[in-house]
């Protein structure tokens, strides 16, 4: 049984006339008649009753037509979705990201992607460190990863494609009662007497902040190194010190803590921010 036989069969079902059915398929009537006869012989049943006015389905033919219609629709769907998948319009996209990316470029990127490819299912996966996201990217467990420099060797060596999306401005996390909380920007020189809370998750950022402070004329007093910006915010709220982050982050509705941009240059070591296969 061949696919063309099924199509010829359904054409005859629709037109109820061998000549018109053959014309709809772009062939002569004899080849279509032969294919229908071959189909009946293979099935061992009569699918149509013939007369000089045309053809009608037999009860067996009606049963067969129901199944063939489903088969052809499934084939058309498979062909259509296969082509859409090849064009990137259908399928799954596994996205690796850092929590800090949720407050910068990622939300808008996902929104734009969903608008352009609504039938692609996005599966987000959070990582604590950029290095972990890059490892997952290299292993193929995610298709694209959002991170901050430094990136993994596999990215910088060329086995993955990397693209710089943005530069974040260094932000200072302050208690709302702090003397600088209402300042539009914060000069590091005004923080020389402060105690600092840093997160080591962005691997080079603590070292970078030390250099900023030294350039401002003082050695920073780091009283805590924590595992994420949420902990930084909580400790600032508790009055432990002043937090510093490589970019803006969500305050999760907190009213007792504010973030202010620093007048330092954007923290951005000579690497890139996004990698993908």
Would you kindly provide a written description of the structure presented here, covering whatever features stand out?
This protein is of the alpha/beta class and 277 residues long. The chain has 9 helices and 12 strands. The strands form 3 sheets. Strands 4-3-5-12-6 form a 5-stranded mixed beta sheet, sandwiched between helices. A 5-stranded mixed beta sheet has the order 9-8-10-7-11, sandwiched between helices. It has a two-stranded antiparallel sheet with strand order 1-2. Helix 2 crosses helix 3. The longest helix has 28 residues, at 59-86. It is rod-shaped. 29% of the residues are buried.
Broad shape: rod-shaped
Q: Which CATH architecture of the largest domain?
A: 3-Layer(aba) Sandwich
**Global Rg:** 33 Å
Distance between the termini: 42 Å
User: What structural class should be given to the helix and strand makeup?
Assistant: alpha/beta
Q: Uncertain runs with pLDDT below 50, 5 residues or more?
A: 266-277
What is the compact description of this entry?
With 277 residues, the chain is an alpha/beta fold.
Could you list some keywords that capture this structure?
20% strand, D-Maltodextrin-Binding Protein, domain 2, 12 strands, 5-stranded mixed beta sheet, 277 residues, rod-shaped, 3 domains, single chain
């Amino acid at each position: 049984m061949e696919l063309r036989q099924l199509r010829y069969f359904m054409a005859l079902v629709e037109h109820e006339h061998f000549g018109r059915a053959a014309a709809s398929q772009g062939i002569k009537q004899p080849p279509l008649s032969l294919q229908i006869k071959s189909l009946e012989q293979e099935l061992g049943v009569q699918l149509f009753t013939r007369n000089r006015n045309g053809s009608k389905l037999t009860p067996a033919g009606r049963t067969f037509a129901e199944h063939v219609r489903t088969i052809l629709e499934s084939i058309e769907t498979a062909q259509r979705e296969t082509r859409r998948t090849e064009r990137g319009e259908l399928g799954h996209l596994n996205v690796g990201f850092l929590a800090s990316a949720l407050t910068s470029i990622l939300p808008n990127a996902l929104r734009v992607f969903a608008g352009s490819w609504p039938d692609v299912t996005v599966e987000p996966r959070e990582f604590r460190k950029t290095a972990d996201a890059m490892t997952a990217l290299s292993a193929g467990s995610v298709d694209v990863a959002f991170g901050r420099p430094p990136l993994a060797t596999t990215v910088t060596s060329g086995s993955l494609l990397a693209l710089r999306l943005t530069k974040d401005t260094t932000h200072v996390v302050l208690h709302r009662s702090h003397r600088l909380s209402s300042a539009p920007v914060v000069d590091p020189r005004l923080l020389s007497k402060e105690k600092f809370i840093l997160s080591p998750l962005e691997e080079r950022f603590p070292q970078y902040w030390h250099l900023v402070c030294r350039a401002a004329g003082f050695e920073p007093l780091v009283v805590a190194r924590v595992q994420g910006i949420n902990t930084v915010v909580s400790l600032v709220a508790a009055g432990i010190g002043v937090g510093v982050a490589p970019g803006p982050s969500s305050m999760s509705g907190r009213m007792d803590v504010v973030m202010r941009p620093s007048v330092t240059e954007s923290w951005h070591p000579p690497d890139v921010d996004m990698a993908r296969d």
